[in-house]
Amino acid sequence: MTVATGPRTIYAQRTASMPGEPAAPLHEGAAGFRPQDLRRAACVGSAARMDWVPDHEDSVVPEQMRRICSGCADRLGCLQRAVGTGSEGYWAATTTADRERLAGAGALSIEGADAVQAELRARLTRAEQQDLASALHPPGLGDLKWYRLGCHCSQCRGCNTAQRAQERGRSAKSRPAAAA
């Protein structure tokens, strides 16, 4: 029997897929994490509103998040919790992929996490430099005109993408509505 009470449903009997006590608080697990540890985390007191668990993670932790995490005294506990619970998103200045890589190698440490992110940032920097070197225009002056002239740097591609989206929007508005 179930009873719907607004947005929550209360189950009179446990189902096979339910944990023993659904409302039970988190407990200290194999990672040694205690829920109260996050109360002192630097991100909890941060005034900035950030998407710590985005729909799509970048391979590199956003700079503002990295700075907040780097100055956090509870960063190792946060990293351990994220790995121990299989959490997704940005935790302890790492991505989900970083934590899987670290846990798979058995090298769960802040130093290891920083090394992984430094390697990814260096790769990204090299890719950005190659992108700038391939540009047909001076840095920062990419636009749709340059794209049409054959420049396919990220800035010119972005201008082309924006133009196409704008054209699709106009096209959708100008089409007559289908008769019902």
| Rg value | 24 Å
Measured by DSSP, the beta-strand proportion falls in: under 5%
Largest sheet: 2 strands, antiparallel
The secondary-structure class comes to mainly alpha
Name the helicity range: 40-55%
Low-pLDDT ranges: 1-9, 14-33
Number of helices: 6
Order of helices and strands: EEHHHHHH
Structural description of this entry:
- There is one protein chain.
- By secondary structure, the chain is mainly alpha-helical.
- It has 2 domains: about 35-135, no CATH class; about 135-175, no CATH class.
- The protein has 6 helices and 2 strands; from the N terminus they run ββαααααα.
- A two-stranded antiparallel ribbon has the order 1-2.
- Strand 1 (about 1-5) and strand 2 form a beta hairpin.
- It is elongated and about 55 Å long.
